[in-house]
Design a protein that fits this description.
The protein is built from 5 helices and 12 strands. Helix 3 runs antiparallel to helix 4.
Length: about 250
């Protein structure tokens, strides 16, 4: 399983993904689930993936090869004129990869499914964020839906819904993201650190702050401990349940 979040705020777009993949409790591996394409001054595109690892790696490989081929007959992420066209190209690639796997003899198509989040900005257009489904269709983030989650989303969603503010800074958005990821990994063993993150600053047209956060990162440990203590304190401040009301 996986947990990835893409969130738009006024100052840019924040991406965060876990790195755990597993086929059982005794077979745990770490794989990067975030990929960037950048042409400074022209475009930055970030992709995150959840689902079948072979499918997502095949999608990224096809997209990478097209950026290096310089073949006008094959559209490339470095050549599309808008983020909408980038999302459509990625969606078509995902659908084709899944279809090719199915044609190879596997009948359980769900086993090859993957879901993607793609966002960024191309010169001349606004920053945009999309959620791409295995069928190849996609939706775009908006004021009513400013963030997308893929993978094991239910544990980390409540804090995002309650605390999201489009005016928050990158630092406050990171704090919110880390609380969401902390809640998820404590509830589900198939989600785990380290966490990769990238913040695209609106209109910068270059990669922004990025990195990897380990479980022993003092910033993460402080947020995790503080959030746990705050929850306990809030619970203790609530009135006790009255089992025999008059």
């Amino acid at each position: 399983m996986t947990y990835c979040v893409g969130m738009m705020i006024d100052g840019g777009t924040l991406f965060m993904s876990d790195t755990r993949t597993n086929a059982g409790l005794d077979n745990i591996s770490t794989f990067r689930k975030m990929r960037h394409w950048e042409a400074k001054g022209d475009r930055v595109i970030t992709l995150m993936s959840a689902g079948n690892l072979a499918t997502t790696q095949a999608v990224v490989s096809v997209l990478d090869e097209r950026t290096k081929a310089h073949d006008e007959r094959e559209p490339s992420l470095m050549g599309v004129p808008s983020m909408f066209q980038a999302a459509r190209l990625i969606a078509d690639t995902l659908r084709n990869v899944i279809a090719n796997h199915n044609d190879a003899g596997q009948t359980a198509s769900a086993s090859f499914n993957a879901t993607l989040i793609v966002g960024g900005q191309i010169k001349g257009g606004p920053q945009r964020l999309f959620l791409i489904y295995p069928e190849g269709n996609f939706i775009e983030a908006c004021d009513d839906t400013p963030f997308f989650q893929i993978g094991e989303m239910k544990y980390g969603r409540p804090i995002l819904v309650r605390a999201y503010d489009p005016a928050m800074t990158f630092e406050k958005a990171m704090r919110l993201m880390l609380v969401s990821f902390d809640s998820t990994l404590k509830a589900n063993l198939t989600v785990g650190a380290p966490f990769d993150y990238h913040f695209y600053r609106k209109d910068s047209l270059c990669l922004g702050p990025s990195g990897r956060i380990e479980l022993d990162d003092p910033r993460f440990m402080s947020i995790s401990t503080g959030w746990g203590d705050a929850l306990k304190s809030a619970l203790e401040s609530l009135p006790d349940f009255d089992a025999d009301p008059e």
